[in-house]
Amino acid sequence: MPQYGFFYNQARCNDCRACVIACKTWNNTTGPVKWLKMYEWEKGTFPNMRLHVLFAPCYHCQNPVCVDAANGAMYKEEKYGAVLIDPDKATSMDLRKAQEACPYGAILFDSDAMNATASKCTMCIDRLEQKKLPQCVDACHLRALDFGLLEDMQKKYGTLRQLEDMPDPSTTIPAIIFKPHNARKQLIPFDANKAVTLFGKRDAIAPLTPLYTNPTDATTITPGLVARTTQNMKPKSVAEHVKLTQHDDA
Questions:
Q1: Which conformational region is residue 158 in: left (phi greater than 0), alpha (psi within -120 to 50 degrees), or beta?
Q2: How far is the CA of 206 from the CAs of 201, 212, 214, in angstroms?
Q3: Residue 119's CB: how many other CB atoms inside 10 A?
Q4: Considering its fold, how many domains does the chain have in total?
Q5: CB 3.0 to 4.6 Å from 10: which of 18, 149, 158, 181, for a disulfide?
Q6: Burial letters for 225-245: b for 16+ Cβ neighbours within 10 Å, e otherwise?
Q7: What is the value of pTM for the model shown?
Q8: Which strands, in side-by-side order, build the sheet including 145-149?
Q9: In a domain, 76, yes or no
């Protein structure tokens, strides 16, 4: 069976969300149904902090555990290797089981109701049949995305199937190749400890109470202070899914 797949270059992506908007427009999805998500989360504190971003459609795994869990409601088609829902066999209960099995949160429901409608990324198989790229790839003006036969993607870009904080790919074998963002560099030398100390002072014009006296007060983040500090591809509800991807609603 041929297997087509994506390439995502995290080093080129600036989270502009052009791919997300293109996906929504082409597939006419609204509300909480987001076949393509761009996740973002922060790690670290000043001066050693970083914003992470992740392109997350369905990865159309070579070993799709969702299909095994779906009791016939899903299948892997043979021309492109796309993982699809069979509308003639799908039941909400079977697709809930598939959603639970998928480590990447690829199956979306329009509500938390037991009879809610499920849908997912189709690899833009309608466009592939027209000899076109998936809409998200076509829309990426920074060229952070590519698509084609997975073996060709591996020859061009390597074999990395997992970025930092992502689920272990060894069981599902997602049909995507990643390039991680570049190692962080300090472009302008400065004394980080001195900078943190100076940030706490407010007496440049008039004597004011310092924001803090201990620099560790500024570099220790208490739980809940920052909205997204960890990667979460498995929200427990539609509301949590919307919250995790609310920056997509442009």
A1: left
A2: 11, 17, 21
A3: 17
A4: 1
A5: 181
A6: eeebeebebebeebeebeebb
A7: 0.90
A8: 145-149, 4-9, 176-179
A9: yes
In the chain, which residue ranges form alpha helices assigned H by DSSP?
18-27, 65-69, 92-101, 125-128, 135-139, 150-157, 192-199, 216-219, 238-244
What is the residue type of 209?
Answer: T
**For residue 47, is the peptide bond before it cis, meaning its omega torsion is within 30 degrees of 0?**
yes
The residue written with tokens 């036969």 in the block is 149
- What's the start-to-end Cα distance of the chain, in Å? 38
In sequence order, what are the beta bridge partners of 4?
149
pLDDT tens per residue across all 250 residues of the chain: 899 999 999 999 999 999 999 999 999 998 889 999 999 999 888 778 889 999 999 999 999 999 999 999 999 999 999 999 999 999 999 999 999 999 999 999 999 998 999 999 999 999 999 999 999 999 999 999 999 999 999 999 999 999 999 999 999 999 999 999 998 888 888 888 888 888 888 887 778 888 888 888 888 888 878 778 888 999 999 999 988 887 766 5
In a domain, 211, yes or no: no
CATH number of the domain where residue 131 is located: 3.30.70.20
- List all residues 6 or more positions away from 125 whose beta carbon is below 8 Å from its beta carbon: 77, 80, 82, 84
Structural domain containing residue 144: 4-185+233-248
8-state DSSP, 230: S
Does residue 91 sit within a domain?
yes
Residue 216 lies in a domain: no
* DSSP one-letter string for 14-72: ----HHHHHHHHHHT--TT--SSEEEEEEEEETTEEEEEEEEES----SS-HHHHHTTT
